[in-house]
Specification:
Blueprint: H1 2-10, H2 14-44, E1 49-65, H3 67-71, H4 75-85, E2 89-91, E3 97-102, E4 105-110, E5 118-119, H5 120-124, H6 132-135, E6 138-145, E7 150-157, E8 163-175, H7 180-193, H8 196-205, H9 234-248
Antiparallel strand pairs: 1-2, 1-8, 3-4, 5-7, 6-7
Helix pairs in contact: 2-7, 2-8
């Protein structure tokens, strides 16, 4: 009888077996996720090899400090700002044109190029390196993002006239070697981790978000269509109710 009781307690319940299987699966996913990150860092930090004969691949356009500004006493100051907000555009030709439809026909117009804006994260990040004096040349802007349904905050440089565009040949002088075995393993891990069920487990167990595809963003109630009629404040509602009670009395 006692042996039967011991055998009964040793038997695992169905719930315990499912929990063990679930933990084993999550453990394997974490292991593959960690290996995927290691391979990504190896690919990223792989040293470049110089070419014996550099070649040209199109043209590159970027901003430089104007000559009169560069010769002034604040030339180095604005060069430091430009290093943080400079933008680069590549094209097969020197004209940097794009197709545009006008009056039913297609025409070529010049591509517009602007300086980079500073995101709110970079603005508050000390690694970005904006000094208090450099911050004085930026203006805070807000733009409503329709896809995410919230106001995005960024900072824009207020004196873009200090910089001009410059075009030069885009010379390829180095190349990154390709490891076939590493690329194959990385592609297999990426394909596995990007599966719908696996990605959900990664976001829930590693990132701490159970449902990242349905993130809720805070919105002002007055701007929302559902609450467009609720324009009265709590104080106004209370005063209105008091007036109604006094009128009834």
């Amino acid at each position: 009888m006692e042996n039967d009781n011991l055998l009964f307690y040793r038997l695992r319940s169905e719930r315990s077996r499912k929990r063990t299987i679930k933990k084993d699966v999550e453990k394997q996913i974490r292991k593959k996720y960690k290996r995927n990150k290691e391979l990504w860092h190896i690919k990223r930090n792989m040293p470049l090899i110089p070419l014996e004969e550099p070649y040209q691949q199109g043209f590159v356009r970027f901003f430089v400090v104007r000559e009169d500004v560069k010769r002034s006493k604040d030339g180095e100051f604005f060069e430091g700002i430009l290093e943080k907000i400079n933008s680069y555009m590549y094209s097969e030709s020197r004209q940097f044109l794009k197709k545009k439809r006008k009056s039913g026909r297609r025409i070529y117009v010049e591509k517009e190029q602007k300086l980079k804006t500073v995101s709110l994260y970079s603005w508050t990040n000390p690694k970005f390196g904006l000094t208090p004096r450099e911050r004085q040349y930026f203006l805070k802007q807000e733009e409503y993002v329709l896809f995410r349904k919230y106001n995005e905050t960024y900072y824009e440089f207020i004196e873009p006239w200090r910089f001009v565009l410059r075009v030069r040949p885009n010379m390829i002088t180095h190349y990154k070697p390709v490891d076939a075995e590493l690329e194959k393993e990385y592609a297999e891990l990426e394909s596995y981790l990007c599966e719908h069920k696996i990605a959900a487990i990664v976001h829930k167990t590693i990132y701490g978000k159970s449902n990242p595809w349905k993130m809720k963003y805070e919105r002002h109630l007055i701007k929302n269509r559902k609450y467009s009629t609720c324009a009265m404040s709590a104080t106004e509602i209370a005063e209105h109710l008091l007036d109604v009670e006094s009128a009834i009395i």
